[in-house]
Amino acid sequence: MSGRGGGNPVDGGPAPHVPVLLAEVLAALQPARGEIYLDGTFGAGGYTRGILAAADCTVIALDRDPNAVANGQAMVAEFGGRLMLVETPFSEMEEAVRGLASEVAAGSREANPSKKETVLLDGIVLDIGVSSMQLDQAERGFSFRFEGPLDMRMAQDGESAAEIVNTRSEAELADIFYHYGEERLARVIARAIVHDRKEKPFETTKDLADLIGRIVHSKPGDIHPATRSFQALRIAVNDELNELAAALHAAERLLKPGGRLVVVSFHSLEDRIVKVFLAARSGRGGGSRHAPVQAADAPTFRLATKGAIVAGEAECRANPRARSAKLRAGIRTEAPALSADPQVLELARLPEQPLRRGGRRR
After folding, report:
1. What's the rounded Cα separation, in Å, for the pair 125 and 111?
2. Confidence class of residue 217 from pLDDT cuts 50, 70 and 90?
């Protein structure tokens, strides 16, 4: 891992590639000899290295960024068969595990390598958000600290931030900024973008940051005026919340009884999805008082933490990006996996009703 997320990642200065809450992640995951773990966000490999150093185990590491996968090949060679690194988003972890079934079984205690569908995991860790490596590369266009192309694509393909900014309607842009960035002036920013792009399309991070800076005024010590809007665009470009929702449900299907799910998030939207998922799956979800009473499903997880674990003062001083990190964990029960949770899916997508004046929905 590379110190993903943080209080204001898009405008923060360069930070060393330090995995956030590493000791707490390992304590929650409890790596053991012969077990199989999945690191869904490899980054610079900090969590993966920590797991492999903690026990003689096997790690399947995933990352959607081809740069991270290329840079991680030295670590694959270093651990000689104990690490498998795959270029894929963590929402597709089931396909990745099935594709590596034989190799995983050969290096682990799995009993039946010929039946790919039987490979289950002892633990899964997810570190949600953008990595400091991506933020520190101007050509990736994630941060307005550097002038670069308005890109933000983790997988380096698909629709870029520039394409969204230059083609989406005012209502669509306002929804992105408001819902994914919690930006109060979402509608004003969207209107200004649509007006200005008629004269010249937005091409660089500076183009967009300068426009937002003229609209959103901040006091000394506040975050940069463009922070929320850049975050919102990054989430939209990479479909991050839907990716997270899909990954949580996939993890439920992949973990064996007693397997541990550990998630580190850096933003309230991400943490809310994780919190709601684990609450619902542990039988603590609230539900609606207007809905008819139904027989409760057997819990698929037990909560492994009481609330969220946060970084201590020493870590926050050493690594400012740890300040907003929250760790939540669950332990898989023997109950069968359930269908996707509607509330989790709802939290992950943009509201269907467009934003009105004053930040209200129709």
Report:
1. 24
2. confident
Report helix, strand or coil for 253: helix
pLDDT in tens, 276-307: 999 999 998 655 444 444 467 899 999 999 89
Tell me if 45 is assigned to some domain.
Answer: yes
Residue 22 to residues 37, 253, 312, 358, Cα–Cα distance (Å): 15, 25, 12, 41
Q: Is residue 181 part of a domain?
A: no
Q: Is residue 283 part of a domain?
A: yes
Among all chains, which residue has been given the structure tokens 């933490």?
305
Tell whether 172 is covered by a domain: no
Number of structural domains (the chain) is 1
The Cα 272–Cα 267 span in angstroms is 9
Supply the pTM of this predicted model. Answer: 0.86
Burial of 115: CB neighbours in 10 Å, binned 0-12, 13-18, 19+: exposed
Model pLDDT for residues 2-55, shown as the tens digit of each residue: 344 443 444 444 444 678 999 999 999 999 999 999 999 999 899 999 999 999
Read off the tokens for 42: 């490899």
Pairing relationship of beta strands 326-332 and 301-303 according to DSSP bridges = antiparallel
Rounded Cα gap, residues 349 and 9, in angstroms: 22
Q: Which domain holds residue 69?
A: 22-131+241-348
Rg of the chain in Å (alpha carbons): 21
- The dihedrals phi and psi of 360, each to the nearest 5 degrees, come to -105, 155
* pLDDT at 238 > cutoff 80: yes
C-alpha span between 306 and 329 (Å, rounded):
9
Taking the CB of residue 345, how many other CB atoms lie within 10 A of it? 15
Q: Residue 46's domain is classified under what CATH number?
A: 3.40.50.150
Could you tell me which residues are beta bridge partners of residue 85? 61
Under 8 Å between Cβ of 266 and 235: no
